Amino acid sequence: MPHTPPGDALQLPAPAKLNLFLHITGRRADGYHELQTLFQFLDHADQLSFIPRQDGKIQLHTPIDGVDHESNLIVRAARLLQAHSGCRLGADIWLDKQLPMGGGIGGGSSDAATTLLGLDHLWQTRLDEDTLAELGLRLGADVPVFVRGHAAFAEGVGERLQPVQLSEPWFLVAVPQVFVSTAEVFNDPELTRNTPAIKVRSLLAGGGHNDCQPVVEKRYAEVRNALILLNKFVPAKLTGTGSCVFGSFPSRDEADKVRRQLPATLPSFVAQGRNISMLHRKLQALAKK
Ligand SMILES: C[C@@](CO)(OP(=O)(O)O)[C@H](O)COP(=O)(O)OP(=O)(O)OC[C@H]1O[C@@H](n2ccc(N)nc2=O)[C@H](O)[C@@H]1O
Ligand SMILES: Nc1ncnc2c1ncn2[C@@H]1O[C@H](COP(=O)(O)OP(=O)(O)O)[C@@H](O)[C@H]1O
Predict the structure, then answer these.
(1) pTM, to two decimals
(2) CA 177 to CA 31: how far, in whole Å?
């Protein structure tokens, strides 16, 4: 099979997300942290292509350096859907990776969600959204929001989601060239885990903070420097456990203008925040055909 997908493959985006704020409100007995966070999608995405196979094999033709085939979240998602649905079909899959890895913008989780929804469509397994979200949660705390595809206020470990309607500004996202380990941040003794739980979530659109930020700034000079730089132009914040940092603007032009002033050593991109994910917009368009 070629490294590029054939023209008749089903091509679907796997968009990024931002955590507009991330409060850690406690820690469960199993060590996982309880959060309150606001997720919004970005119109910036990996692209996945799928072709069904009759022999049941799952084959990803575009390996990611440092991630072996069987641990890639795309392959794991495909196998989970196969096992759960009893489907005998397999798939050839191609990934065009655009999203930085370990950046806190959820690329791996989004790839997993796009695989679950894409193969559910191609294999006609027709699982309902709750079942797909539950399968997604087994792959990672962030997968359910990508399965549901609506901007959301999240609680629990990120799986209890309430859809929200937010404004859709343009974001400038800077990508410090470091890999931040989520587990390492959550295990840091200095991480604050006692932000009081908020009740009126609507108050926090545009507000709130990221409890992981002080820990990540302390451990990674690249992230600290990116925040200092961006803060010269716009209030900047960390997304997830990092490394990416972002600021919001009323228009693409204003975001681009600041982007042009960042040094070449700090890669960045501009994308609009969206309440309905690119994946769901594309699936809705396909359903209308
Ligand atoms: C905190 C968030 C916010 O979006 O960070 P990012 O990964 O996006 O940066 C996510 O919920 C992360 O989700 P995800 O990246 O899927 O994490 P998982 O694979 O489930 O967990 C990785 C490790 O992080 C820790 N972990 C994760 C989530 C959580 N609520 N509490 C934790 O303590 C655990 O040690 C776990 O072993
Ligand atoms: N399809 C995938 N895309 C990205 N990362 C993947 C994928 N499958 C497995 N991984 C693993 O998940 C880790 C975190 O991925 P990613 O979702 O990009 O970061 P984050 O959770 O910080 O947004 C990667 O370093 C990699 O080891």
Answers:
(1) 0.96
(2) 29
Q: Is the CB of 241 under 6 A from ligand 1?
A: yes
Nearest Cα neighbor of 256 from 274, 268, 241, 238 is 268
Cα-to-centroid distance, 76 and ligand 2 (Å): 12
Q: Is 96 a catalytic residue?
A: no
Class of domain 10-289: alpha beta
Flag whether the ipTM exceeds 0.90: yes
What are residue 95's DSSP bridge partners?
Answer: 48
User: Dihedral angle at the C-alpha atoms of 111, 114, 119, 122, nearest 10 degrees?
Assistant: -130
DSSP assignment of 62-118 equals SPBTTB-GGGSHHHHHHHHHHHHHT---EEEEEEE--SPTTSSS-HHHHHHHHHHHH
Indicate if the pLDDT at residue 84 is higher than 80: yes
Give the closest ligand to the alpha carbon of residue 73.
2
Q: Which ligand is nearest to the CA of 65?
A: 2
User: Which ligand 1 atom sits nearest the alpha carbon of residue 35?
Assistant: 30
State if residue 186 touches ligand 1 by the CB under 6 angstroms criterion: yes
Parse the chain into domains and list their residue ranges. Answer: 10-289
Judge if the beta carbon of residue 108 lies within 6 A of ligand 1: no
